[in-house]
């Protein structure tokens, strides 16, 4: 049943509610196309900038890797498999990790799932294998019996959940992606960070064959319910959103008189203003034209359940009911009014078995395979995926092309005012790398003239640059203050440059070191180790600083190519969401597992003269440049690895007539 308490009922009504279907310019919205093209975007922008915050560029499409935190084991008498998974994300200022738990039904087809953003320690109280006190907060066994996978993580494993705003933003995921000095009034708060954690779990679910990623509901209670709404708005992969007693800043409308409900001004009093963007608690913010029903409407036409308790005055049941009522017209635009539900249950502020039963009942009826198919591809354009960055040795430029093949961005050394005039010729001597960092906000480049630069995409200008000996082939960022570059002829070394402070744009101030290799070409930094390929093999290096503060590298272990019958390592790239490295040699493409430190020979691909082999953001396909003339090509391909016993498939992608493309990468 949808919308069990209609707007005509209830004791308190909202008044002077800002319009939902009227744009900021005053145009009335009459259908779903107008909603998506003219209204949805401006509302989403306002709420993220003024209430929940904007992610740092590097966190928007994070470098994430998953591994088992414990061996899988049977659960609940063998009807499920318990999975404990560790997610590790590399940011500009370090590696951040958190764990989550999944109980997956044992059956022959993928299961839909409920993902809980927990605000208590599920390991002690709500893990059905080892719980100390059985509660209804996360009834994993009951969820599995209903045919759903039960997945959960604890919010404070991602970002602090405390009553001390002064320190909350200096730890957890925040510490890996930004410095306190970099925060602005629009920076992300903890609710956005917890929602970000839910999206990382969703990344894992997409690659987990036992779970149906098209039918996943995200659930939260209280502040977790606020975070679930943020996750549903910012990540359209969630098919269903369940917000339980989320109150102000969640599913409660504010244009209503509820004296016992939490006021917006309470955040600072309780020390939790860090839940929101700094702008949200600015006394000057105006809610005259905005309210939470507009935020809920951003989930339409996907499934939304809002649930309240009769004695939960602090969350404000009347305000939550009214919020759903005023949001529902967005679903009506799609003819999907049954996809939104409000329900009121007896009781106090809690998430219990009754709530879970209601959510699963709704999912049984609405989150079907037919629904998932109807939602397939909805809002896909929001991801921004599909951009490609490449180096063109004909024009000596770094170019970005969109999914439609249009050139949308270009950098050329001769046009960059921050580079010294005498060095621009060396920069123009065959650009040899175009590597995106931090969600594509920075682009690393090198040239055969022995120059390197880190380019800010928004500014279209170098924010760090330097000089090396020999022909430079690849670049890597080692944390936030060290650049690694490998060179061949005349260099044959791994160079490390300290770019901290004013050294970034002044090569004379850069402390540097060099370590000899045999024609090194590819680099990858995993947050702890620097991996390098050269002619003889693959090397794992440690990075430290000497007594003078100079960054130095040391080879810790080598895996020779001779044991595989290949030579001349070239490109080296991590496969997203896995512990794998993909690398090219003259003869074939190799895969190596960084966790087990072993070759994955079952995945090797026969292909000669591959210059770049770049994994897509989901890690399931690869962007390929294969030399046609010398080391150049004018066309790109997409490689899809074959299943066991099947050959990989190569299909044509972007063609740029006359170009001399050396390397190409996915921007995100």
Describe the structure.
The structure is a single chain. The protein folds into two domains: 32-60 and 75-103 and 113-128 and 137-372, 3-Layer(aba) Sandwich (Rossmann fold), CATH 3.40.50; 384-666, Methylamine Dehydrogenase, Chain H (7 Propeller). Helix content is 19%, strand content 33%. It has 14 helices and 34 strands. A nine-stranded mixed sheet has the order 1-2-3-5-4-6-7-8-9, with helices on both faces. The longest helix is centred in the first third of the chain and has 21 residues, at 32-52. The protein is globular, with a radius of gyration of 26 Å. The two termini are 41 Å apart.
Describe the structure concisely for a colleague.
This protein has about 675 residues and is α+β, with helices and mostly antiparallel strands. The protein contains 14 helices and 34 strands.
Q: How much helix is in the residues?
A: 10-25%
Q: Tell me, what's the shape?
A: globular
Oligomer: single chain
CATH topology of the largest domain: Rossmann fold
Domain tally: 2
CATH H-level homologous superfamily name of the largest domain: Alpha/Beta hydrolase fold, catalytic domain
The major sheet is characterized as: 9 strands, mixed
Computed structural class: alpha+beta
Helices, by number, come to: 14
Spatial sequence of strands, sheet with the most strands: 1-2-3-5-4-6-7-8-9
CATH class of the largest domain: Alpha Beta
What is the end-to-end distance? Answer: 41 Å
User: What's the β-strand tally?
Assistant: 34
- Beta percentage is 25-35%
Mean pLDDT: 92
CATH architecture assignment name of the largest domain: 3-Layer(aba) Sandwich
Query: Low-confidence spans: pLDDT under 50, at least 5 residues?
Result: 1-8, 128-133, 380-384
